[in-house]
Design a protein that fits this description.
It is built from 11 helices and 11 strands. It is α/β, with parallel strands linked by helices. Strands 7-6-8-9-10-11 form a 6-stranded parallel sheet, with helices on both faces. Helix 1 packs parallel to helix 11 and helix 4 crosses helix 7. The longest helix has 19 residues. The protein is elongated. It starts with 5 loop residues before the first strand and ends in a 15-residue tail after the last helix. The chain binds nicotinamide-adenine-dinucleotide. Nicotinamide-adenine-dinucleotide binds next to helix 4 and helix 7.
């Protein structure tokens, strides 16, 4: 790797990582996030663009890096995601192309949104805001102080299902709010609780597991039933982790006190979905990771990884270290 590389960057890229990358390579920066309507390159389109730019490094977020892209003489691929599922890693490895990823890039972003959802659900922020905006503060003969009472979070127990990057970033924030935090994660030695024990103890259940065949649908009618009466359920991970009909039933029956959700199957909810009409539910459209810091974090991870590769090292975020042997 002696010639100065030329990098086509279709991911948002900023901060220290962008400065590093500009020191290492000639950079063509054309992030998808600046495009309206949305632009998502398939492999043919990305291959054509990379070839037209004369790029031998491609750095993407969701564009497809498969087939024809891997026929180009690439020296490295950067996938600005924790799971580089937009890259055909096996084919890249077969061609000896290093693939870098960006683990934990959005952990703080998702953790902050998790806390925002929890506080919003627990204190009825969205419903209260609606009352103010509609001039509906004194309704049905009551004042807001009567309608918006809540238990405080301090001193109560939060149960984290999944103790990976986001779970850990959420844990200290909840502790900072004065909560006792317990966790269930069969692959984390400091997660001490079985799922059933966690559900029985937690005033707040917050989902942070990845979706696998083991975790898909792991929170269904039986699990909602095991939760404490009035528990708050937060899912800033993936809707696939729960049975949405069972969630609706647990909210309708009053078993759950409320829910905060950042993801829906198919990425949206029909406007006539029962969750939409519930004032104790706060809904956000998969914006957990949407911070400028997420972009700065993945930029730094990928650029530092590339610097190490170019210096002959083996970066921690290299997905296929076997290409270096
Ligand atoms: N809302 C958003 O915008 C957004 C952004 C990033 C990540 N996410 C989601 O948040 C979740 C966590 O992401 P992450 O970056 O922390 O991933 P991660 O891989 O760091 O952590 C996932 C954790 O799930 C655990 N796990 C696996 N099987 C489990 C099981 N049966 N029970 C409990 N835990 C189990 C793993 O051991 C791991 O610790 C994922 O579902 C991810 O898709 C959402």
């Amino acid at each position: 790797m002696t010639d100065r590389p030329r990098a086509l960057v279709t991911a948002p890229f900023r901060g220290e990582g962008l400065e590093t990358l500009r020191r290492l390579a000639d950079v063509v920066l054309d992030p998808w996030i600046d495009q309206q309507p949305l632009r998502l390159y398939n492999s043919e389109q990305l291959a054509e663009r990379a070839q037209a730019e004369g790029a031998n490094v491609v750095i993407v977020e969701s564009d497809s890096v498969k087939g024809p892209v891997l026929e180009l003489p690439l020296m490295a691929i950067g996938s600005c995601r924790g799971d580089p599922n937009n890259v055909d890693v096996e084919a890249a490895t077969a061609r000896g192309i290093p693939v870098l990823r960006a683990p934990g890039r959005n952990a703080d972003a998702v953790a902050e949104l998790t806390i925002a959802l929890l506080l919003a659900v627990n204190r009825g922020i969205v419903a209260a805001d609606g009352d103010v905006r509609r001039g509906d503060v004194y309704k049905d003969g009551s004042i807001p102080y009567q309608r918006f009472r809540a238990w405080e979070l301090a001193g109560r127990t939060a149960g984290l299902v999944g103790l990976g990057a986001v779970g850990r970033a959420t844990r200290w924030r909840l502790e900072g709010l004065g909560m006792r935090v317990i966790a269930h994660d069969p692959y984390a030695s400091d997660a001490t609780h079985s799922l059933d024990d966690l559900l029985a103890e937690a005033d707040v259940v917050s989902m942070h597991a990845m979706v696998t065949s083991e975790t898909a649908g792991m929170i269904g009618a039986e699990q909602f039933e095991r939760m404490k009466d009035g528990a708050v359920y937060v899912n800033s991970a993936r809707a696939m982790l729960h049975d949405t009909d069972a969630l609706v039933a647990a909210l309708v029956s009053g078993k759950l006190g409320g829910a905060g959700l950042d993801h829906f199957e198919g990425e949206h909810l029909p406007v006539d979905h029962p969750l939409v009409g519930m004032t104790n539910v706060v809904l956000t459209p998969h914006i957990g990771g949407a911070t400028y810091d997420t972009e700065a974090n993945h930029s730094k991870l990928i650029a530092d990884g590339l610097a190490e590769l170019l210096a002959g090292g083996k970066p921690d975020n290299l997905v296929n270290p076997e290409v270096l042997t």
